[in-house]
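Problem 3 from the worked examples.
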Amino acid sequence: MPRTGTPSGPEEKLPYRIELWGADGSNRVEQVLARAVSAQLARAIFTAAKGEHPARRITLRKGNRIVADSAG
């Protein structure tokens, strides 16, 4: 039986996600590269993803809010 107030889904447990956008410049997420539990870990993954995909748009998002964007 789940306890009240505890996260139930993976998105609640890992609220940050690092997204790789379409190579063709399309306005769509091609792949979620990673999810993270903390802002510090998410930033580290975001920085590494930018190094792995220097010509691609990478975003770091928490929920619907973009926290960091390699395009701007």
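Problem 4, a separate protein:
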Amino acid sequence: MKTLRIGIKLRYALILTLALILLGNRGFRSLVASYREYRTLTARKLELEAQRSELAKQLKNIGENPAVEQAARRELGLIRPGETEYRFPPPKKSDK
């Protein structure tokens, strides 16, 4: 009976010592915090990759639509790289 109590006390002492070493150690806590941050960032990376893929599909669909390009040229004055846009003043009423 006495040896059983000593064994239980020894186990509790060992568990307590191990808990103090692991939880009291800043390096271990830092390691756990880093691992949690790694998991969070990995999940965020997957979300962003899926979003990027969806945006790439949308961009491809928009690029294939000539009406969008015409609207961008007309309303926003956009031009393609390498193009030159010439703007002329509107004709005067006396020129008609």
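Solution to problem 4. The chain is about 75% helix and 0% strand. The two ends are 118 Å apart (CA to CA).
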